[in-house]
Structure formats: structure tokens, C-alpha cells
Design a protein that fits this description.
Length: 308
């Protein structure tokens, strides 16, 4: 397993994968690798122009292997999530992979269309709603998988169940860490519920380690004072792996025959910063089943999406 690379991905022909945030970074590399193995890949993106450019790049890099489709999805809008889910269910009654990859990082305080704190709303609640709405297309499909991308930052996260929107307590890093902790709590709780329902789908989680992507561009580079963010952005490539390597844990979780439901995968070396994918360990808070159940209840109430 320590030597695994995307070249080891099994043939994906006849499989359909939905990848959120697939126009750049880890999402793009994930979609590219799956398409190169013959999968039909749906790029679920907010910016349709960027999604179309990504589709052209994938076609060019793969020589036309795989079928690339686009669906508009803005995770900051539950109306958009519902429209995207309706479109996906209509086009693809059967789904094999859902990759919950899209995210925002270290933003100034703000609200989604539905009034949620932006990082929690986009990173967790948008994906919670999308997964619930698409679950009927996945749950009876053999070897179907739901892969949720978390972060090393989850280890610093605390779940504020009495104040999930961080009213009066907002901090960029606090909000991001809580959202990434919520991703893991959700993924593990989803796996528990899938097993109880004897569903075919597996729920897994992963993180990219230190990867050089544009995720921090708006939150760090553009919004940091005195140009500090741009300096950090310039130095970042010297301390990170590229987006393709950062996508390896996602691809491993999505395709390897060796994974198990409830697994959490990340880079093998330097305290999970870089290297090939391997099984890693969530924080103690991420494994709190009581918190996960309470988060699930609040997420259903906030989104109005109740899982079948």
C-alpha cells in the first residue's frame, strides 16, 4: 500500500463518479485520474466557465477517454444543491462514486444564501444535503462509495454544538477547523448508518496532507493584511506536494479494493504531510459517536434534508 499511485487504479469503465469542486486543485486531479481509467465523471462546480475549461483540459490530457459531464452546483445555496441533485438523479439513476471534495478555507466572516456561517455551510452542510439527496442512487449499487475530503486541520477543531454558526466567536481558523471536523464526524456517522441499513455503499474519508492548491487563495492570499498572504502563497510550493499527489488519498479511498468502510486515508510521511496514501487516524473528537449523532440531527434540521 505504501507504494500505491494513481496508476494502480482499477479500470473504471461503466462507473459514474460525481466530483464536487472538480474544476481545479485536488478535485480536478481526481476527475482527471478517474476519467483516464474510463469512468464517466460529472464535474459538479459553481463556475460553469471554469468547469468547461476543466472538461477541455481533461479531454486533452486523457485523449478523450471517459465521458465528462458538467452540473452546476453552488454548495453555499441549498436551492442550488437541490437543483443539482434533481439533475443528477434524472440523468444518472445509478451512481458509483460521490466525491465530496469542494471547500472554502479561512474566509472572513460571512453567510451563505441560507444564513449559515460560510465555511460550515459550504464544507459541511452543503455536502451533507447533497449526499442525502443522492443516496438513493448509491445505496444499492455494489462497491459504491462516498468519499468526504477532510483536512489535518480537523485535529485542531472543536464542535460548538450550541453555536455551530460561531455567533460572537468567529475566527477564520476556528471556523475552518470546525467544518473539517464536521466532515469527519459526518463520514463516520454515515458509515455507521449505512451498515445498520445493510446498504451496499461505503462511506470513507481522506485528507490531502500539505498540498499546493488554490484552496487558500481567497481566504489567505487575498484577505490577509499587509500582503502577508501573498508571501505565504509564494513560499507554499517549497513545503508541499503538488495537487496530483494531494489527490492520491481521495483516489485510493474511491477505488482501492483494500479499503474498508469508515476508513480515513492520508499521506504516509512527515506526520501525514506528504507521501503515498495510507490508513491514518482521526482525532479523538472525530470519533465521538455522541457528537456525530447530535451533529447529524442538527444538520438535518438546518438543511431540511432527511436521509432515507
Amino acid at each position: 500500500m505504501m507504494s500505491w499511485s494513481p496508476q494502480d487504479i482499477p479500470d473504471q469503465q461503466s462507473r459514474t463518479a460525481v466530483v464536487t469542486g472538480a474544476n481545479s486543485g485536488i478535485g480536478f486531479e481526481t476527475a482527471l485520474a478517474l476519467a483516464d481509467k474510463g469512468a464517466r465523471v460529472v464535474l459538479a462546480c459553481r463556475d460553469l466557465a471554469k468547469a468547461e475549461a476543466a472538461r477541455e483540459r481533461i479531454h486533452e490530457k486523457t485523449g478523450g477517454r471517459g465521458e465528462i459531464q458538467i452540473v452546476e452546483l453552488d454548495l453555499a445555496s441549498l436551492n442550488s444543491v437541490r437543483r443539482a441533485a434533481d439533475t443528477l438523479r434524472e440523468r444518472y439513476p445509478r451512481l458509483d462514486l460521490l466525491i465530496n471534495n469542494a471547500g472554502v478555507m479561512w474566509l472572513r466572516q460571512g453567510r451563505t444564501e441560507d444564513g449559515f456561517e460560510r465555511q460550515f455551510g459550504v464544507n459541511h452542510l452543503g455536502h451533507f444535503a447533497l449526499t442525502g439527496l443522492l443516496l438513493p442512487a448509491l445505496r444499492d449499487v455494489p462497491d459504491s462509495r462516498i468519499v468526504t475530503v477532510s483536512s489535518l486541520a480537523h485535529k485542531a477543531g472543536r464542535l460548538h454544538l450550541d453555536n455551530l454558526q460561531l455567533e460572537g466567536r468567529y475566527g477564520r481558523q476556528r471556523a475552518y477547523a470546525q467544518a473539517k471536523l464536521a466532515n469527519l464526524l459526518f463520514s463516520l456517522e454515515l458509515e455507521r448508518r449505512l451498515r445498520a441499513a445493510e446498504a451496499s455503499t461505503l462511506s470513507l474519508a481522506c485528507h490531502p496532507g500539505f498540498a499546493n492548491t488554490n484552496l487558500a487563495e481567497s481566504g489567505v492570499a487575498r484577505e490577509s493584511p499587509f500582503g502577508v498572504g501573498y508571501i505565504a502563497r509564494w513560499l507554499w510550493p517549497f513545503f508541499t506536494q503538488n495537487a496530483a499527489r494531494g489527490a492520491a488519498p481521495t483516489l485510493y479511498a474511491a477505488t482501492s479494493p483494500q479499503v474498508q468502510g469508515g476508513g480515513y486515508y492520508g499521506p504516509a510521511y512527515l506526520k501525514e504531510a506528504v507521501g503515498p496514501p495510507t490508513l491514518v487516524h482521526p482525532s479523538r473528537r472525530a470519533r465521538d459517536a455522541d457528537d456525530a449523532a447530535r451533529l447529524w440531527e442538527q444538520s438535518e434540521a438546518l438543511t431540511g434534508v432527511h436521509y432515507p
